[in-house]
Amino acid sequence: MTKKIPIPQHLGMPNKALTKSSRRKFIKTSALAASLPSFVPSSAFGANDRINFAGIGMGGRGRGDLNSFLGFSEIQTLAVCDVVKSHADQAKDAVDRKNGNKDCKTYVDYREIITRDDIDAILIATPDHWHAKIAIEAMMSGKDVFCEKPETLTIKEGQMMRDTARRFGRVFSGGSQRVWGDYNWFHRMIYGGAIGEVKEAWVNVGGPSGECYLPEEPLPNGVDWNRWLGPAPWRPYHPALTRGGFRPFRDYSGGGMTDWGCHGFGGALFALNLHETGPVKITPPDGKDIKNLTYEFSNGVKIYHGGGWGGLLSFKGTENEIPFRNNSKNRPNPPSVYIPNYKGQGGLSGDFVHCVKSREKPFRDIERAHRTATHCHLGNIAYWLKREIKWDPVKEEVIGDSEASRWIDRPKREPFTIG
Amino acid sequence: MKNFLIIISLLFIGFNSFADEVDEAISTAINFTDGKPSEPLKFLEAYAVESINNPDRRNLIEIKILDALPKANSRRAEDFFCRLLRIVGTKKSISVLEGMLDDKEASHMARYALASMNYKEAGQALHNNLNKVSEPLMAGIIDSLGDIRYQKAIPDLIPLLDRASVANNVTRALGLIGATGVADILIPRLSKTTGKAYQVTAQALLRSAENQIENGNNKEAQKIYKTFIDPSKDTHFILAGLNGLAKINDSEAIPLLTEAIKSDDIQLANGAAAIITQLNTDNIGEKIKDLLEKAPPNMQILLIGAISDRGDKSALPTIINLTKSDNIDVRLTAIQAIGKIGDSNSLLPVATIAASTTGHERNLARSTIANIKSENVQNTIIASIKETSPEIQSELVRAIASRAEESALKHLFIYAKSEFPSVRKEAIRGIGILGTANELSNLMNLLINPAEDSDRADIESAIVYNFRRIENNKIKFNALKEALKSPKPKVKISVLSLLGKNPNNESLPLIISTLKSEQSVQLAAINTLAKWPNEEPASDLIQIASDKKNQNKNSALDAYISIASKAKNPTEAYQKALLLDESKNSLKRILSGLNQFNCSSIIISGMDLGAHLSCDLIFSFNVCFLHPSCFLHSMG
After folding, report:
1. Is A12 within a domain?
2. Measured between beta carbons, which residues in chain A are less than 8 angstroms from residue B270?
3. CB-based contact (8 Å) between A401 and chain B?
4. How far apart are CA B464 and CA A43, in angstroms?
5. Which residues of chain B does A5 touch, with a Cβ-Cβ cutoff of 8 Å?
6. A25 and A148 inside one domain
7. How many domains does chain B have?
8. A25 and A172 both lie in a single domain
């Protein structure tokens, strides 16, 4: 390729927060990295088309997600579903208020929604252990899916979800609004070359989940406990689980590693352009030399769980670090560099709405969502087994460790077959 | 030897005490129910995990678990031991777990351990029990046989397709196992099923097709995919068929995709366009040229996007033509696509668009030219530029700058002397953007000898931006000092303007020295000094302001007033200005300046003030009333 002159920042004052050398590199990289924004005009897919929509899993988070979709004129919400009746009723109230009628249907069994031919797209905000089953069945019935994060409970589930989406040409958006919405300053700084080549990142999120030994409590009316458990191993009822307190427990969630991990690791992976691949080695802390769980990638990049200095995300480049240690609150303007992100208007939800109509891949396409979740799951496996895991990110297999391979998936409780 | 024996003894004691702890934890776990202390269970899990790499310990814990499992007093205790076997279980555990498969409560957790193990014996155990367990449990076993792709079970699975309660599970399992011949069994079922059963069959067939492709059996896969390319089927099944076919036989898929793109079903049309982006073949653009030219605008947009996303240059001539479409969105998409797949031949058409449009279309065209990734773009520009109109030339010169190829500056300096003002303007702007200290000398020469004097403002701007990238002030100063030697007043005027933009002690004497030059240069120097950051030039300005014959005396007085506020004694400075302001033209500024400081020093007595200043005086007096001492002093 033709050799280029390093282009100085376009007729503007230099960025004072950057060192001279980093500025030079940043200028060069930002100019070269700038590319044309991609867009599909609304005329390509009939801007007035309505999307018939339904929500499954209408706890607090689900109702929050649903509300963000209710704001779109294209979205017509026809039904909501939850195994806890009061959750479904609250969601119905919100939909009916928006629609000015009483037509929104409520269901306890999500299959009532999946089998409705008049529904085009669904929101899944159930506990994590239900995501894969509902998402795959929805896509098999021709529906597009917006799924809260963590999108998967196991690595195999993610593979099956991705394969199903691709097979049937379905639009699947994962639910981390933070990967771009909250962390795009990091992405712009790094893609723009403002801190040089990044070889290390730190992600401060919670730890892995573990077994659940909560005491049994009487099952109240209005809770379908068997359906709440679904594919997960049986255990007696405890109210914390149906009230959002399921995250610390392995049968239903990967804990903080996957909950905020899908945000934080998702952000780090996107910033480092590693969001559609995976690590090659995951080493848990040993209490001696290795202080943090460490992911290593084939290009030499290391991502650490915990540590860092700047809140959730810290990056160290060859020329600088972000956030800046001395003045982390005063973030400089990032380089002017175009990074493809949400399509359409209205953040992550708007991106999904746009892509349902255009059939483009959304920002948190299943591949990215699955790869991020896999990254988190691999960290959990290394923590749980207290041993180094070698991973083939192309074949998506554990290398040379049959015991670790056992954790790629978990046999589901009959009759809750997945996919 | 003695020490060695001691160490061995200690290790043995340690091992035994650990074994005791394991026994104790296991006996607690046998009676576990939720809500009881969970520490023994956590201890056992940690012990199991740490045993994986230690054959002796692993053997010990596995035996103890297998011994405890039948004694478990609760479902949850039994579950717990199965979880441990999932971690450490070996072939030894298989028979025990197999024995639990027909237990309604324990079957799932037995599978939980068994189906996680990568032993063929585990698959055999599941297979053995396929027809021995009740139907709800059978579904689970079938699922697990599918998950582990246990081929030997196929003959026993097929008959179960007729059993409604597990038919979907069997279908799924056959798809996952994906052996040759599965298609012949499942394809006929498509026509006999609806709803969920149809979906499960389709998923199984498509999975099976993927397995066939992996094994090189494209023919079998093709048979499956073609089954779904049927207008009577739902859109997502048709797309699945097209998508699969496109992977293995694009020449057969392209005409079908072309038809699909014309469909009124927007989802099918858009989905087909998306498949085109993933076709594993070259020159798709050429193959769908007719479609691209004749499709309705919404499809043209999707196709242009799809083709450019895959970097297919074969459609470039058609896409260039589409930049002339009547539809603005088609034009914009085509321009954008050229940025991705265009080459040097695309330059002129896009430059023509940039030169003949406005707003977003122009901006997009400009960024497209800047982004075209091809060799020799700059050489193509240079070779063709002379043949084009001045407007297009301007765009091309702008492109030279924005593309920033290594020899760009050399050419920009040539175009900075073009006969067309708009071309020169773009060239000079480009020099400003790209130039470094190396270009300073040429830039100063351009200032001294521009193509036309009207270029000077642009050249000055370019020098200002160039200076921002030169950290050594001496280099900048010397360049300006040298240029100031030019006999041309207009050059001196430009240099004085530049000196004023970077005021320092070194440049002040140089500027002051030009106060003795001819009037236009002197005026430029005065204007520069008017913005000086301190009072240093005050005496020189006063001198000119006092010279009644000097035509620039009023300007000098104005300049003096401008820096009076920076004096050590501003009141005195304004007082001096007041005395010199015979025409009273600057009185307003002087009084305003005085008001900013200690107004007790206002000296108005004895002065003959013009009526037109009354308002300003009233204002000043108002201020003084608020400060009686000032007022009295000024009246006195």
Report:
1. no
2. 44-45, 357-359
3. no
4. 45
5. 404-406, 408-409, 434
6. no
7. 1
8. no
* Identity of the residue in A4, A35, A210 whose CB atom sits nearest the CB atom of B406: A4
Tell whether A170 lies on the interface with B, counting CB pairs under 8 A.
yes
Contact between B434 and A168 using a beta-carbon 8 Å cutoff = no
Contacts of B34 in chain A (CB under 8 A): 213-216, 235-236, 238
- The amino acid at A253: S
> Mutating which of A1, A3, A4, A5 best tests the B interface, going by the most B Cβ atoms within 10 A?
A5
pLDDT in tens, B141-167: 999 999 999 999 999 999 999 999 999
Residues A143 and A26 in one domain: no
The per-residue pLDDT for range A136-183, each reduced to its tens digit, is 999 999 999 999 999 999 999 999 999 999 999 999 999 999 999 999
User: Which structural domain, as residue segments, surrounds residue B626?
Assistant: 534-636
Q: Are B210 and A163 inside 8 Å of each other by CB? A: yes
The total of structural domains in chain A comes to 2
Over residues B542-576, the pLDDT tens digits come to 999 999 889 999 999 999 999 988 888 888 888 88
The phi, psi pair for A73, rounded to 5°, reads: -65, -25
Examine residue B558 and state whether it is found in any structural domain, yes or no.
yes
CA distances A291 to A284, A310, B116, Å, are 8, 18, 31
DSSP run (H or E) holding B349? helix B347-356
Query: Are B329 and A44 within 8 A, CB to CB?
Result: yes
Residues A129 and A172 occupy one common structural domain: yes
CATH of residue A308's domain is 3.30.360
Distance between A184 CA and the closest CA of chain B, angstroms? 23
Chain B, residues 64-93, CB within 8 A of chain A, namely 75-76, 79, 83, 86-88
- Residue span of the structural domain in which A216 resides: 19-33+178-338+365-419
User: Of A177, A192, A226, at which residue does a domain stop?
Assistant: A177
- Name B34's Cβ contacts closer than 8 Å, sequence gap at least 6: A213, A214, A215, A216, A235, A236, A238, B76
Specify if B151 maps to a domain.
Answer: no
* B428 close contact with A: CB closer than 8 A: no
Is residue B170 in some structural domain? no
Closest CA to A403 of B69, B99, B78, B85: B85
* Within-domain flag for A359: no
B541 within 8 A of B550, measured Cβ to Cβ: no
CA atoms within 13 A on the CB side of A311: 13
Nearest to B87 by CA among B126, B120, B40, B53: B53
Q: Is A84 inside any structural domain?
A: yes
B478: CB partners within 8 A, 6+ apart? none
Mark which of A156, A177, A198 sits at the end of a domain. Answer: A177
Q: Is B275 on the interface with A (CB under 8 A)?
A: yes
Among residues B106, B104, B87, the alpha carbon closest in space to that of B96 is found at B106
The residue in chain B having the minimum alpha-carbon distance to the alpha carbon of residue A408 is: B116
- Among all residues of chain B, which has the CA nearest to that of A7? B434
**One-letter amino acid of B8:** I
Asked, for residue A398, whether it belongs to a domain, the answer is yes
Cβ contacts of B156 within 8 Å, gap of 6 or more: B127, B130, B131
Q: Of the candidates B108, B239, B266, which has its C-beta nearest A233's C-beta?
A: B108
ipTM: 0.89
CB B292 within 8 A of CB B315: yes
If asked whether residues A184 and A171 sit together in one domain, one would say no
Over the range B68-101, which residues count as b (16 or more CB within 10 Å of their CB) and which as e? Answer: bbeebebbbbbbbbbbbbbbbbeeebbebbbebb
CATH number of domain containing A98: 3.40.50.720
In a domain, B117, yes or no: no
d(Cα B395, Cα B405) in Å, to the nearest integer?
16
Q: Which amino acid is at B286?
A: E
Q: Distance (Å) from the C-alpha of residue B117 to the closest C-alpha of chain A?
A: 6
Q: Kindly give, in sequence order, each residue whose CB lies less than 8 Å from that of residue B395, ignoring residues fewer than 6 positions away.
A: B351, B352, B354, B355, B365, B366, B369, B426
Tell me: pLDDT of B276 over 90: no
